Amino acid sequence: MFPTAPLSRRRLLAGAAALAALPSAGRAQGAGRIRCAFADQSFEAVLNDSPTAHDLMSLLPLELSIEDYSNNEKIAYPPRKLVAEDPGGIENPQPDDVCYYAPWGDVVFFYAAYRYSRGLIRIGRIDGPVDPLLVKGEYPLRIEAIG
Question: Is 116 helix (H, G, I), strand (E, B) or coil?
């Protein structure tokens, strides 16, 4: 048996600082990273820790079609609707958001400003420039997990 020292405030704070400095393995993680490729374009995104993002990851790799919708987004339809636990809004919508629109069942890649619509669930963020999404048209799309 090891002797135990009383837990002081200093020891507690030192332990918390050491835990924070450790790599994030074992701590809550996002759902993962994805690579999306279409035409001669590709981009990566980091998915959050939502049930919807995890459900999308469980389907990968996917071969879909990506197409323009409106003047600020591209959309793609997974083979089935995803788990959709709507948190009831998106704080600070950004042009690099990756979302799931539950009413239609499509994954949405925003490349310009947008406003929240009921049923829109943020599942991640594009990691890098959104320029690949500016290519107009409908293309075969491959989504795969990376890293």
Answer: coil
Give the CATH number of domain 30-146: 2.40.100.20
Other CB atoms within 10 A of residue 85 CB: 12
- How far, in Å, CA of 147 to CA of 145, rounded? 7
Condensed to tens digits (0 to 9), the pLDDT of residues 81-125 reads: 999 987 778 989 999 999 999 999 999 999 999 999 999 999 999
| 84, 99 Cβ separation under 8 angstroms | no
Strands (DSSP E) found in the chain? 32-38, 41-47, 62-69, 73-76, 97-101, 106-110, 120-126, 139-146
90 — alpha (psi -120 to 50), left (phi > 0) or beta? Answer: beta
Residue ranges per structural domain of the chain: 30-146
Taking the alpha carbons at both ends of the chain, their separation in whole angstroms is 41
